[in-house]
Write a structure and sequence with these properties.
single chain; 477 residues; alpha+beta; five-stranded antiparallel beta sheet; 29% strand; globular
Length: 477
C-alpha cells in the first residue's frame, strides 16, 4: 500500500483549491545561452481532463534566458495520431494546441515541415506555432545577410509568406503527425464535430516504435537469432509452473475449447488511471442472435476504476452495418449494446458525433453508452474549459443539459451506430432477435476508402502462398 500511495501522489491534480501548495523540484543546470548555471524547475502534475505531464521551466539570472517545456508523463498512446485542421478565420488561429516532442508539423500550402524531435513539446496556439517558426528563421538573418546574401533573401521571402498566413489572406491547412499519439488540437465547435478538423489514428511501424523506446520481447531477448524453433518450443515446455511470470504456457490438451468458453481467465496488469497493480478478467462468451466475443473487465481496488472492453471473436464481416435505435424511455435504456472499436456514434437530436476510436470497444447498455459518451466529451473538451469564452461555455452548458435530460429519460433520442466491420450489435426487444419497431438495421457494402483503412485492399485470403512460390521459382531461374 505504501508503494501505491507513493505512485498515486506522484502526479497530483492541477487544482488550486485542493492542492494549494504544489511542490516543484529545482535543479541547477547549465544555461545553453551563456553557459552559466541557471535553475530548472520540474513539476509533475495531472492536467484535469487530459493526462499526467511534466512541466519544466528554466531561467538564467545571468543573461535572462528563459525556456518552458511540457512532456507527457503517462503511457504512450497505443496508436499514432494525425490531425489536419483548416485555418480560415482569426478564431482558428487561436486554436490551442498540445504537441509532444514527436510531433511533425506541416503547412501544406507552403510545403513547409517541422520535423519530429526538432522542437520540444509545448502548449501553444496555431498562431504561436507560426510565430515560433518566424523567430527561429529570423534570429540569424543579420549574419546570414553578410555571409550568404542569396540564402538570406530566400528566407526573408519565406518569412513574408508566413506573415501572410497570420493575416489570413488565404486559408491554409495545418497537419500534425504524432507517432506517440499525445498531441491535441482544440475543437472550437465542441460538443459538435469540427468540420475543419480531421483526426485519424494509425499503427506505428517497427522503426517508429523503436524511436519511442518500444521494443517487443523478441527484440530485447538475449537469445541469438539462429536459435532453432524446436529448441525454443522445448524451453517453453520446460518452464516450471511455480515461476511467477505474467503469461504461462498452456500445455497441449490442458484446456479444451469447450472448457475455455466457460472459464474466466485472469491476469495482472496496471490500472490506466493510477498505475497500481490490479487484475483483468477475460471471458469468451456468445451473444444470442449475434456472434462470439471476448469480454475483458478491469477493477482497481486502489482508485475504484472500472473498465470493460470487448473484442469480436470472429473476423470482419462481408458487409458493414448501420444501426438506428430510437430511445423512447427506460425500456430502451436497458438494451444490450456491443460497440466495436471501429464503430462511430451519432445522436441526431443533439447533432453530436463521436468518432470510432473515442469510446473503444465495449459491451454495455444504451444508458451506459450515453453516460460513457458524456464522460468522453467532458475529457476531450474540458482541458481548456476554465479559459473558454462565454459563448463556448454557454454552448457546452446547453448541450450537457440536453444530454443529461436524455439520460434521465425526459428527452427522446435517435442513436445511429455506423460500423464498417459489421461487428456491432444492439439487442432487439423481440424474442426471435428480429428488429423491433424502434430498431433499424441497415447493411451496406464498404467503400474503397473504408477497406483501405481496415487494411482489406492489400489482404489476400485465397491462394496466398502462390505468389511467394512464384517468386522463389523466378529466383532459381
Amino acid at each position: 500500500m505504501e508503494t501505491i500511495a507513493e505512485h498515486s501522489g506522484m502526479f497530483p491534480k492541477l487544482n488550486v483549491d485542493e492542492e494549494p501548495e504544489l511542490s516543484a523540484t529545482e535543479v541547477e543546470s547549465m544555461c545553453m545561452s551563456c553557459q552559466e548555471n541557471g535553475i530548472t524547475r520540474l513539476l509533475l502534475t495531472q492536467i484535469p481532463f487530459y493526462k499526467e505531464v511534466v512541466i519544466m521551466s528554466f531561467s538564467c539570472d545571468h543573461c535572462g534566458y528563459e525556456n518552458n517545456e511540457i512532456q507527457p508523463g503517462g503511457e504512450i498512446a497505443p496508436k499514432g495520431v494525425e490531425i489536419r485542421t483548416e485555418i480560415v478565420t482569426s478564431r482558428d488561429l487561436n486554436k490551442r494546441v498540445v504537441k509532444s516532442d514527436f510531433s511533425c508539423i506541416r503547412i501544406e500550402e507552403l510545403d513547409f515541415e517541422i520535423p519530429a524531435q526538432s522542437q520540444k513539446g509545448e502548449v501553444t496556439t496555431v498562431e504561436g506555432i507560426i510565430d515560433r517558426v518566424i523567430r527561429g528563421l529570423d534570429q540569424d538573418q543579420p549574419v546570414r545577410r553578410i555571409q550568404h546574401p542569396e540564402a538570406a533573401e530566400q528566407i526573408d521571402t519565406f518569412i513574408t509568406n508566413l506573415q501572410t498566413l497570420k493575416e489570413l489572406e488565404r486559408p491554409f491547412t495545418l497537419t500534425i503527425t504524432d507517432i506517440s499519439g499525445n498531441s491535441f488540437v482544440e475543437n472550437l465547435n465542441a460538443p459538435h464535430k469540427d468540420p475543419a478538423t480531421t483526426i485519424s489514428h494509425f499503427q506505428r511501424t517497427k522503426e517508429q516504435n523503436h524511436s519511442l523506446g518500444i521494443f517487443t520481447h523478441d527484440e530485447v531477448s538475449e537469445t541469438p537469432e539462429t536459435t532453432n524453433a524446436v529448441e525454443e518450443a522445448i524451453k517453453l515446455e520446460t518452464v516450471p509452473e511455480e515461476v511467477d511470470s505474467l503469461l504461462k504456457p498452456i500445455r497441449e490438451g490442458a484446456w479444451p475449447l469447450e472448457e475455455l468458453h466457460g472459464e474466466v481467465l485472469q491476469f495482472q496488469t496496471n490500472c490506466p488511471e493510477c498505475a497500481a497493480a490490479c487484475d483483468t478478467n477475460m471471458k469468451v462468451t456468445t451473444i444470442p442472435h449475434f456472434k462470439e466475443v471476448v469480454i475483458m473487465a478491469t477493477v482497481c481496488d486502489n482508485c475504484g476504476l472500472r473498465t470493460n472492453e470487448v473484442k469480436p471473436g470472429g473476423g470482419i464481416e462481408e458487409q458493414g452495418v448501420k444501426i438506428e435505435v430510437t430511445v423512447r424511455g427506460r425500456i430502451d435504456f436497458a438494451r444490450d449494446v456491443l460497440k466495436s472499436e471501429s464503430c462511430s456514434l451519432h445522436i441526431r437530436e443533439l447533432e453530436c458525433e463521436v468518432g470510432a476510436g473515442a469510446l473503444g470497444g465495449r459491451f454495455t447498455t444504451i444508458e451506459g453508452l450515453l453516460t460513457a459518451m458524456r464522460e468522453q466529451l467532458v475529457e476531450s473538451t474540458g482541458m481548456f474549459m476554465d479559459s473558454n469564452d462565454a459563448e463556448t461555455k454557454e454552448r457546452m452548458d446547453k448541450f450537457f443539459g440536453q444530454l443529461d435530460s436524455a439520460i434521465a429519460g425526459n428527452k427522446q433520442l435517435t442513436i445511429v451506430m455506423d460500423d464498417p466491420t459489421g461487428n456491432s450489435y444492439v439487442q432487439s426487444l423481440n424474442d426471435d432477435g428480429t428488429p423491433d419497431t424502434a430498431l433499424r438495421i441497415i447493411r451496406y457494402h464498404r467503400s474503397y476508402e473504408q477497406n483501405e483503412e481496415l487494411g482489406l485492399n492489400d489482404m489476400k485470403t485465397e491462394n496466398y502462398g502462390e505468389e511467394s512460390i512464384d517468386d522463389a521459382g523466378k529466383g532459381d531461374c
